[in-house]
Amino acid sequence: MNLKNEDKNTQMRGKSTTVGIVLCFVAVIVMVGAYTFRASQNKLDEQIAKSEELAKEITENENKEANTGNITNPNEGADGESSTGDTSNTADTVEEESVAETNEESAATATPADSLYFDEESILEWPASGAIVLNYSMDKTIYDPTLEQYQYNPALVIGGQVGEEILASAAGTVETISQTAETGLTVTLNMGNGYQAVYGQLKEVPVQQGEYVEKGVLLGYLSEPTKYYSVEGPCLYFEVQKDGNPVNPVDFME
Fold first, then answer.
1. Is the Cα torsion angle 179, 180, 185, 186 positive or negative in sign?
2. Of 32, 156, 160, 167, which has fewest CB within 10 angstroms of its CB?
3. How many CA atoms lie within 13 A of 77 on its CB side?
4. At CA 216, angle to CA 210 and CA 218, rounded to 5?
5. pTM score, two decimals?
6. What digits encode the pLDDT tens for the residues 196-238?
7. Which residues touch 202 (CB under 8 Å, ≥6 apart)?
């Protein structure tokens, strides 16, 4: 009898132990679940707070843009039309004044070279003091004593003394200063209207290319003759051209 009671008590203690273990396990699960829930809830709350803050910022930016777009042009009237009036007349006036000022400035800065003009009625002064030793001749040949042959001559060859001053026969712009075997140091003046004057057999030229010179200005000094004019002696090679073609200089001299 006592043995049965002991077995019964043992079974009861075993069941109690099992129930206790189950209850402890359930309690652990509940505690873990509660902790996980709280962590999830906190994270969710943070995300919701961030979303609300972002939405608030977007709304503020939209309001600022809307206010900027509604700023009224100070030049517009109440009906939205510009109050500046018609500026076309003012612009035309300013443009006319600008053109007038430009013309005045151009006139003030214009050089005599801008008004160069030479034609068949113009007069050339003699560039050297000597006599003509070879005449211009393009319609027939003449005898050249240095070359000992007959040939055409596109220029006047005027005798002179070494070191003699050679002066500009007319106003012009120095177009080129060159050195050639035939005419030595040579200055070409642009006299305007297609006319040019060529001065050869020079030395110590004081002018520069592009420079404007008046009639009578010193262009250089007469040099020793080149081998092409050794028989003629010191002489000035003086050629006048119209559009690149030689013309008789005597036709323009008094």
1. negative
2. 32
3. 6
4. 60
5. 0.58
6. 999 999 999 999 999 999 999 999 999 999 999 999 999 999 9
7. 166, 184, 185, 186, 187, 219, 220, 221, 222, 223, 236
